[in-house]
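Re: How this chain folds, sequence and tokenised backbone to follow
How to read it: Take the token row as a discrete description of the fold.
Start of record: The labelled sequence and token lines come straight after this line.
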Amino acid sequence: MVKYDVAIVGAGLGGLQCAYILADNGLSVCVVEQDALIGGCLQTYRRDGLPIDTGFHYIGGLDEGQILHRLFSYYDLLSLPFVKMDVECADEVVIEGKHFAIPQGYENYQSALRRYFPHQSDGIDKWVELLRSVADNIWNSLKPREAEQLFSQSLFAQGAYDYLHSIFTDSLIIDVISGPALKMELNAEKLPLYTFAQITSSFVQSAYRIRGGGMQIAEQLRRGIESRGGKVLRRARVTQILGTEGHASALEINGSETIEATSFISDIHPAATMALMEGSGLVRKIYRKRISSIANTFGIFTTSLILKDGMVPYQNHNKYIYTKPDVWHINDCLATDDTIRSALVSYAPNEDAKSPFARNIDILVPMHWSRVERWFGTDIAHRGDDYEALKRDVAERSIELAATCIPGLSAAIENVYTSSPLTYTSYTSTPQGSAYGIQKDFNNLMFTLLTPRTPVDNLYLTGQSLNLHGILGTSMTSLFTCAELLGPERVAAIISK
């Protein structure tokens, strides 16, 4: 039997990036994925001949010299068909019918905010200075720990909501700055300033979509892994992590086969990782219980619209729509109130680059797990009439909200496809269909900010639940995880190339 240097659970972005780095550094690597498709949230499916993304909609920091440009260059991803979004308006924030264009570039961003809110200029300057600082210092996490701890931990220990209220006196500017952050959970009592600022900063730097679906990123990484001698196995469900006395020895696959390795990385949710060691004695029950009890961020309900050709002009920016102000608290009652108060509307670039019309638009709205929990454990496409009725209702109301900003949308719809947090759980094993992983809490960093290390001496974690979520957060966390196996100096050399 072949024994690998590293076996990786899950072929999401983090698992694939770790495999690429380790294989590129001469280690024998095997990635095991339960699904027929790799990529996790990058998965793309086709309906009516068109690609529809499941989780990927746009990324930030991809201009030359920026954060993801360096990493994507290393992974040989820059040849993919990325589409730069409108420089003067990458994100349009709509609050009670008032429209605000959010441009790319720090100077453009600063100027736009000053035009909208000239009386908040001092706070705007402080805010943009902070965004520049977090971007400039993101690489310090791979340098001596003293510098990294001094900078990032202090920002992790501050609340984003409180910080914004400390530099601004106008609540509307806080809503406008925070409006594009529906790509994270705006929890006023918990969200760390570092999380909010770093993610915001990357999309202010630059913003890109991809033509043809995010799955291309996963497939390009797979090709890079395999060309370096690594393996990516599909339909290989890990049913148990085997080992004794705090040391893992193998992965049990599909309840029968085993894959042995010297070290292991889990790219699935930390709680799902703990479930794979239940009864093994690898970790203490109290540790498994602690990880499994950490709160998760809310899920997302996605309504994917296939549009009749020639009816809705393609717009090269997102729309963030809010029915009322105070965006930090607008979704506080998700568990008890099913009213749709906010939505992200994302246009997919047409595969025919010359066409001025949109064929696919996604509408994303927050959804609490309690809305779909009673169907947990049922099979996809066999969840009953009540579940289908729920999806139709949410889709109809999502479309109504989006149509307030897109003239003629309803008449242009050819087909509607939906997914809920339950769908997300079925394909990714993420507890409660959480869109952004574990809920970070600046009041309790030791409990919610996980590191790659686990009590199992040769088992490491990676993925969006550890540091930051999204493409940026997962990409950075992959570096942190690989640094545990290769050493920080070798990993730092990757980003200096």
